[in-house]
Design brief:
The chain has a domain of about 110 residues. It is about 20% helix and about 35% strand. The chain has a twelve-stranded mixed β-sheet. It contains four helices and twelve strands; from the N terminus they run H-E-E-E-E-E-E-E-E-E-H-H-E-E-E-H. The protein is of the alpha+beta class and about 250 residues long.
């Protein structure tokens, strides 16, 4: 029995290592340009579209063609810019090197609900359904397609990691009775779990939130002006805002 367990462990290690080599043997594309459109739904809010443009150096969020306000993630410099046209401002968010630990226990587990056999194929594959749990409670359902736009998954993971690092900075000002285990995990301490199994084509979770993939274009003809920042806008950091250093006109 002891030898059987040892052999099983060795076999498992070999399988995991082999999968790792396979994943590494497929390099991410270069000079790619993706356009991804989601439909998002929140409690008390009418459904709205979100367009995401992804390149090797940038990631942009907006609400579609002719958007005036947008979020631009400069991947080369690892900084997020939020552009508000009406106020003519650019607020920047930088990664925070913090060792802050969760203020409450967060036991993270996942439940594999299997392939969605009745769903249509995407990129030649059936979507797969997972549930993300915190402290034994389902916090989010995510439906993914493995190996769909892995470069997009990487870019979205980088963005999510940066925003989660900044989120940690707000914990000290949050009353203890306001902490929610799902929120702490999904927004701050385990925010990238949604990308663990592949590209999320649908996410459903807290407070009736849902995000559903509507369309995507892996050969998007990009207008490079979409990846530029206005040159004459007032610039400040999110930390400046928190410290009351920002004065708005009007």
């Amino acid at each position: 029995m002891k030898n059987y367990k040892i052999n099983f462990i060795y076999s498992l290690v070999f399988i995991v290592f082999s999968l790792f080599l396979i994943s590494c043997s497929k390099p991410l594309p270069k000079n790619y340009s993706y356009r991804i459109t989601f439909m998002e739904q929140e409690q008390y809010v009418e459904p709205y579209p979100t367009r995401i443009i992804i390149t090797q150096d940038f990631l942009r969020f907006d609400d579609g063609e002719n958007s005036q306000d947008y979020i631009l993630f400069d991947r080369s410099n690892n900084v997020v810019h939020s552009v508000v046209t009406e106020e003519r401002t650019i607020m920047s968010v930088h990664p925070k090197d913090t060792k802050i630990k969760p203020p409450i226990k967060l036991d993270l587990t996942e439940k594999d609900l299997g392939e969605m056999k009745d769903a249509p194929e995407i990129n030649g594959k059936k979507p797969h359904h997972y549930q993300l749990l915190v402290n034994g409670k389902v916090c989010s359902d995510v439906i993914v397609v493995n190996n769909l736009m892995p470069a997009a998954v990487k870019a979205l993971t980088e963005f999510t990691e940066l925003m989660a690092s900044d989120s940690k900075m707000t914990l000290s000002s949050t009353p203890a009775d306001m902490f929610n285990d799902c929120d702490l995990a999904m927004d701050t301490f385990a925010s990238t779990r949604v990308f663990k199994f592949g590209f999320p084509v649908q996410t459903m979770g807290r407070r009736d939130y849902a995000r559903t993939l509507v369309d995507y274009d892996e050969k998007y003809k990009l207008d490079k002006k979409l990846l530029e920042l206005p040159k004459d806008y007032k610039q400040y950091t999110v930390q400046d805002l928190r410290e009351g250093k920002v004065k708005f006109s009007g």
